[in-house]
Amino acid sequence: MNYISTRGDRSERGFSEILLEGLAPDGGLYLPTHYPKIDDATLARWRGLSYADLAFEILGLYITDIPAADLRALVQRTYTPQVFGTTQIVPLKPLEAGLNLEALSNGPTLAFKDMAMQLLGNLFEYELKRRGQTLNILGATSGDTGSAAEYAMRGKQGVRVFMLSPNGRMSPFQQAQMFSLQDPNIHNLAIEGVFDDCQDIVKATSNDLAFKRKYRIGTVNSINWARLLAQVVYYFAGYFQATKSNAERVSFTVPSGNFGNICAGHVARMMGLPIHKLVAATNENDVLDEFFRTGTYRVRKGAETYETSSPSMDISKASNFERFVYDLLGRDGARVQKLFKDDVEQTGSFTLSGEEFKRIAGFGFVSGKSTHADRLATIRDTWERFGTMIDTHTADGLKVAREHTDAGVPMIVLETALPAKFAETIREALGRDPVRPAGLEGIESLPKRYTVLPVDAQRVKDYIASHCGEL
Ligand SMILES: *Cc1c(COP(=O)(O)O)cnc(C)c1O
């Protein structure tokens, strides 16, 4: 299997080549040259597999430049009950007839990003060792991504993490999760500014090509194909749990921000998984809902990007969205280039033609939007009627899922985080603290390891340069 860019550069690269890279050289995103089709017999065989074995089968179709035995061992080391809490790894939790949550948030940082990031940690370690290289991962976080990256890379050979976060602005729980890590290859840099300052420093550092090359700077952001690929697996796992035979179809609702999670659902559907609808749920930052309703994709400005109580969906643009548009437009790289490079970069938006817009239905996509009041009501209702406590992002999903259920088609809502991470809104909704998984009770009082730095890219570079000794 090889990979090409969404913007028309059809030169093919292998999986290991694109694993450690971000954008394709022409500014597009990488996608496989085609989606392998899963026939009935294969789907029937996969139904009986453990999560790790299923992951090996699916990943093996897309990763053909790592020996099968190595890939199998790597996947089996990743998806264990020790790390993800149950033997099913992603158990289905029925709420009412035809409506289920799929639990994706029982990894170390209590959000679904662990599902992909834990695999990425092992893939990076493997590939760097094979090449005899090292990598310094530089990132900015306001919560979920940074902690998932740190828990995936801690103790890994050949990898260091430098994670910038706005000093004092993360929730105490999220801060404790990250800052309590004592692994020498994990560096928490608390920047005396806001999240945007952190992101600007990362950009400035990555744009310094000499520095980037000298210190082998890399990223783990959501456009990484390996992350998306890892997420394809739990769509199959959810389907098998919700159905008895491959004649049945299911729908998925996905609390969405950067479109990475639901894009994995699109890939699963393109492979032939019987998915009826893919429902994109947004919060007040409704870039995606607007697109699926109107055919206009309009990037939001800073002042139009709201801070909400489902913060991991607070986006101004959806960085993986271009992948879906490429498939929607019949893989016409020139057209994608026109829409994303010319139109979005110059005017901030594009609008599909009427004919293009009509094609969306054939891909199963629909959407909906949820507000703070909806979140509170949904958290309360789910707690009172089912005794199940859900987080704010999952609540957005559940609210929108109810608007798109069809008789006879099971709906699966992806649970993207646990309520323990969002205590303030849980207290507002339920008048009590969220339940916390065992082992995390006293996390705020653990010793913290971090360095405070001013909003100054040079100081961050100096820090990196002086902490890049032998690994
Ligand atoms: C990252 C995240 C999302 C959004 O996922 P995308 O892949 O960016 O669409 C939703 N919920 C939670 C809890 C997240 O951490």
SSE arrangement:
Blueprint: E1 3-5, H1 15-19, E2 30-32, H2 40-46, H3 51-62, H4 68-78, H5 81-84, E3 92-96, E4 99-103, H6 113-131, E5 135-140, H7 144-153, E6 159-166, H8 172-179, E7 186-191, H9 195-207, H10 209-214, E8 217-218, H11 225-242, E9 250-255, H12 260-270, E10 275-282, H13 287-294, E11 296-298, H14 321-328, H15 333-347, E12 349-351, H16 354-358, E13 365-369, H17 372-386, H18 392-401, E14 411-415, H19 423-430, E15 451-453, H20 457-466
Parallel strand pairs: 4-14, 5-6, 5-8, 6-7, 7-15, 9-10, 9-14, 10-13
Antiparallel strand pairs: 1-2, 3-4, 11-12
Helix pairs in contact: 3-4, 3-11, 4-6, 6-7, 6-11, 9-20, 11-12, 17-18, 17-19
Pyridoxal-5'-phosphate binds at residues 111, 113, 144, 222, 255-261, 312-313, 393, 416-417.
In short:
This protein is an alpha/beta fold and 471 residues long. It has helices spanning 15-19, 40-46, 51-62, 68-78, 81-84, 113-131, 144-153, 172-179, 195-207, 209-214, 225-242, 260-270, 287-294, 321-328, 333-347, 354-358, 372-386, 392-401, 423-430, 457-466, and strands spanning 3-5, 30-32, 92-96, 99-103, 135-140, 159-166, 186-191, 217-218, 250-255, 275-282, 296-298, 349-351, 365-369, 411-415, 451-453. The strands form 4 sheets. It has a 6-stranded mixed beta sheet, sandwiched between helices.
